Amino acid sequence: MFSSRLPPDVAPNALTRRLEALRAEGERIVDLTESNPTRAGIDYPDDLLTGLGTAAALRYAPLPLGLRSAREAVAADQARRGAGVDPAHVVLTASTSEAYSWLFKLLCNPGDRVLVPRPSYPLFEHLTRLDAVEAVPYDLEYHGRWEVDFPSIERGLVERTRAILVVSPNNPTGSYLSRPEADRLVDLCAGHGLALIADEVFADYTLDARADRVTDLALQERALAFTLGGLSKSVGLPQLKLGWMVVGGPPARRDAALGALELIADSYLSVSTPVQLAAPALLGRGHVVRERIQARIRENLARLRSLVAMHPSCELLPAEGGWSGVVRVPDLQGEDALVMALLERERILVHPGYFFDFPRPAYVIVSLLPEPGVFADAVARMLQVVSG
Ligand SMILES: Cc1ncc(COP(=O)(O)O)c(C=O)c1O
């Protein structure tokens, strides 16, 4: 009945069905998959959103790539991260997900392929499919830290491959792309005429001071590159719907890409005027929320580390950045049965490794956002179950 852009089966899986049934019965579930910062008891300044109410927003004068003041604010924020970009190379979107959609429209014909990391964020499967693009996984391999497996990238460099996606730090492995990896990827993209798409939504949330934080991929001039970010993570405001991309690479290709993106953006004009007008203030004050989220995830990670240390059969994998903790656990019953047992016995919801395409069982992935007391109690109970 509907197009092949949708998965053949859109029905919820057994875990989701059971979760919905328990909630309908009024059961309280501790959600260790919570990735929405506005539901995690983070204290937001009361007046953070006052800029959205400016009378200037009563006038509609859309610009496809975004208002100059908002693009300048994003450029200033990139400079804070160590990447001085030209505001003319910034494109505003309603979200990072929308940025992906525009880039697939820009770069790919139906049936073309993009390489995506594995393990990683499962939304890529849907985002690509909805734009009639095929996601081909390349591997991240764990050797004490997660590293790009270049042979798996080379295997994916076939005729219809148009782009390589990287997520840095990756969700949920928390691994940043290292400088040598970034250089090698830029070389590969330049050599094969591919674009590099770097998702940096979590780049501000460093958990390991030694992390090799590469945030300047859009400043090199060898390969067409796009770096993606947004308020959703950087200021913990997913409901405002403001994301962005920075376009870089060889100047002629970069400018051609900006011209084509202007046409795509003009067809949707999806970013609201109030959020664009408020962007300078939101980004200027965003550090207040960011620091609170940062403190929360560091506190929970430290707690997770000490709790996991009490269970020798489990291992907390190093997290360089991001909002997740990855715990390797004994594979006693399969991940499906494990997450279901946690829900049934402890009323705790976690993500199994297969949700993110981990190569082998068994992993449990927890969000580092929940309130510390709730988090510590639930993790302690979870470890009792998963450690066997
Ligand atoms: C790696 C990654 N990229 C993008 C997004 C989506 O961000 P946005 O809310 O800007 O669409 C997420 C959301 O969790 C994510 O984990």
Could you describe the 3D structure shown?
This protein is α/β, with parallel strands linked by helices. The protein has 2 domains: 14-43 and 287-386, Aspartate Aminotransferase, domain 1, CATH 3.90.1150; 55-285, Type I PLP-dependent aspartate aminotransferase-like (Major domain) (Aspartate Aminotransferase, domain 2, 3-Layer(aba) Sandwich). The protein is 39% helix and 16% strand. The chain has helices at 14-24, 68-80, 96-107, 123-130, 150-156, 179-192, 231-234, 251-268, 273-308, 335-346, 372-386; strands spanning 30-31, 90-93, 113-118, 134-142, 146-148, 161-167, 195-199, 225-230, 243-248, 315-316, 324-328, 348-349, 351-352, 363-367. The strands form 3 sheets. The protein has an 8-stranded mixed sheet with strand order 2-9-8-7-6-3-4-5. Strand 4 and strand 5 (146-148) form a beta hairpin. The chain is globular. Pyridoxal-5'-phosphate binds next to helix 3. Pyridoxal-5'-phosphate is lined by residues 35, 95-97, 121, 167, 171, 199, 201, 230, 232, 238, 243.
Would you give the CATH topology of the largest domain? Aspartate Aminotransferase, domain 2
How much strand? 15-25%
Note the total helix count: 11
Helix content: 25-40%
Provide the gyration radius in Å.
Answer: 21 Å
**Ligand inventory:** pyridoxal-5'-phosphate
CATH superfamily of the largest domain: Type I PLP-dependent aspartate aminotransferase-like (Major domain)
Just give the CATH class of the largest domain. Answer: Alpha Beta
- Tell me the CATH architecture of the largest domain: 3-Layer(aba) Sandwich
Biggest β-sheet: count, sense, barrel?
Answer: 8 strands, mixed
